[in-house]
Structure formats: C-alpha cells, structure tokens
Design brief:
- By secondary structure, this protein is α+β, with helices and mostly antiparallel strands.
- The chain is built from six helices and four strands, in the order H-H-E-E-E-H-E-H-H-H.
- The chain has helices at residues 2-12, 23-28, 56-63, 86-94, 107-117, 123-128, and strands spanning 35-39, 42-45, 50-53, 76-80.
- The strands form two sheets. The chain has a two-stranded parallel ribbon with strand order 1-4. Strands 2-3 form a two-stranded antiparallel sheet.
- The longest helix is centred in the first third of the chain and has 11 residues, at 2-12.
Length: 129
C-alpha cells in the first residue's frame, strides 16, 4: 500500500511520466493521464475459469483516465487487440450504449456501509441519504 501511494504521488507530481499497470489496478487508480493504452483485451474471469474480453464498462473506465478536462485539453485512448476482435472494439467505442444503474440491487449494502462509516447515524439521515 505504501508503494502504491508513493507511485501515485510521484506520477501526479509529474516525476514519473509513464505508469504501467494491470486492468485491476487501472480500476483502482484515480490518476489523470494524457494517453491511456490498453495492451491486450482479455482478462481472466475466475467464475468462468477462462479468459474473457474486457467489458464495455472496463474499456470506458480505463479510457476515462485520458484527457480529463480539468487537467488536459485533450486525451488519447489506444487499444491493442487481436485482428479478429478489432471490429468488436470499434463498434464498442463508436456506439451509443444505454447507461443502466445497478445501484438498486445493492442499495442496502451501500446504506449499511454509510452507517458503518458514521455518515448516516439515524433513520432520518438514512431517509435523506
């Protein structure tokens, strides 16, 4: 954890110019970058016991690090995949996909977390939350 905090700090200060990480770490790192490169589009899914293609959400989340308006005027996303998957990712990146919230199914868990954190401490605060 201390190594991660150090690398994040050095990257955000511009002392490290290139950060290479796994897709899992890319989900957890909240650092803006000018260019984001996804090298390889398959990740291991333990539930399926096999490698699967990155989901549209994964790709958009990772590419969302590139060119954040408060830090940069533009950004670039590069995806390196196999030729047979190229049309899949072109469709993904040029299509308008519906956004569907998944919060309702886990609302009780999120509210419970707020209670544990102390940000919600009464029924009235829970109703407002």
């Amino acid at each position: 954890r201390s190594d991660r905090a150090l690398v994040e700090r050095l990257f955000s200060e511009g002392l490290i110019r290139c950060l290479v990480c796994t897709a899992t770490l890319a989900w957890g790192v909240n650092l803006p970058a000018h260019t984001v490169i996804i090298k390889g589009t398959q990740i291991y899914n333990p539930q399926k016991g096999a490698h699967v293609e990155l989901s549209p959400l994964d790709v958009m989340q990772i590419f969302g690090r590139a060119g954040r308006p408060q830090f940069d005027k533009s950004g670039e996303g590069v995806i390196i995949t196999t030729h047979d998957k190229l049309s899949h990712y072109l469709r993904l990146l040029t299509a308008s996909l519906p956004v569907e919230s998944q919060l309702t199914g886990a609302l009780a868990d999120h509210l419970n977390a707020e209670v544990c954190l102390g940000t919600v401490s009464s029924v009235a605060e829970g109703a407002t939350w």
